[in-house]
């Protein structure tokens, strides 16, 4: 599967639904899982990517302690969704609250996953990432 790329500005509708960018719809046509992510964003997984992520979290949870608590939050915060004919996916109220989503959101490709951010929070995180990237004299892992 190819990576999801790009950044798209969208809005939640009055029912808390989000129209997924057309570039992202194909891999999500038969369903997806939306879960909570780091830095108060939401993460959209294809069914295949969800299986992989869930197995990794399951392994970590066996260590107990903080890892088990994080695993509980990870699974409790996840919802299976299926886009409707217009490419809209419902975002649960608890997920919208976690991510601070009210209206304007950014849908961003993130490797084999998709992230959903509050637009203001995304702009702050993106600026930090761009500053790190531009300040680096080299990033061997990036091929730069």
TrEMBL record:
<dbReference type="GO" id="GO:2000143">
    <property type="term" value="P:negative regulation of DNA-templated transcription initiation"/>
</dbReference>
<dbReference type="InterPro" id="IPR020603">
    <property type="entry name" value="MraZ_dom"/>
</dbReference>
<dbReference type="GO" id="GO:0003700">
    <property type="term" value="F:DNA-binding transcription factor activity"/>
</dbReference>
<dbReference type="InterPro" id="IPR035644">
    <property type="entry name" value="MraZ_C"/>
</dbReference>
<dbReference type="InterPro" id="IPR038619">
    <property type="entry name" value="MraZ_sf"/>
</dbReference>
<feature type="domain" description="SpoVT-AbrB">
    <location>
        <begin position="7"/>
        <end position="49"/>
    </location>
</feature>
<dbReference type="InterPro" id="IPR035642">
    <property type="entry name" value="MraZ_N"/>
</dbReference>
<keyword id="KW-0677">Repeat</keyword>
<dbReference type="InterPro" id="IPR003444">
    <property type="entry name" value="MraZ"/>
</dbReference>
<dbReference type="InterPro" id="IPR007159">
    <property type="entry name" value="SpoVT-AbrB_dom"/>
</dbReference>
<keyword id="KW-0963">Cytoplasm</keyword>
<protein>
    <recommendedName>
        <fullName>Transcriptional regulator MraZ</fullName>
    </recommendedName>
</protein>
<dbReference type="InterPro" id="IPR037914">
    <property type="entry name" value="SpoVT-AbrB_sf"/>
</dbReference>
<keyword id="KW-0238">DNA-binding</keyword>
<keyword id="KW-0804">Transcription</keyword>
<dbReference type="GO" id="GO:0000976">
    <property type="term" value="F:transcription cis-regulatory region binding"/>
</dbReference>
<keyword id="KW-0805">Transcription regulation</keyword>
<dbReference type="Pfam" id="PF02381">
    <property type="entry name" value="MraZ"/>
</dbReference>
<feature type="domain" description="SpoVT-AbrB">
    <location>
        <begin position="78"/>
        <end position="121"/>
    </location>
</feature>
């Amino acid at each position: 599967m190819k990576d999801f790329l790009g950044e798209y500005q969208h809005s939640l509708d009055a029912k808390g639904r989000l129209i997924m960018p057309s570039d992202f719809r194909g891999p999500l046509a038969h369903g997806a899982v939306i879960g909570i992510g780091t830095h108060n964003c939401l993460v959209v997984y294809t069914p295949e990517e969800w299986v992989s992520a869930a197995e990794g979290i399951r392994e970590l949870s066996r260590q107990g302690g903080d890892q088990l608590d994080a695993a509980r939050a990870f699974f409790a915060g996840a919802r299976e969704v299926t886009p409707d004919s217009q490419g809209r996916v419902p975002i649960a109220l608890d997920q919208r609250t976690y991510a601070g989503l009210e209206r304007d959101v950014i849908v961003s490709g993130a490797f084999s996953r998709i992230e959903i951010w509050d637009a203001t929070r995304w702009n702050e995180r993106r600026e930090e990432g761009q500053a790190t990237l531009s300040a680096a004299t080299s990033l061997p892992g990036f091929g730069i």
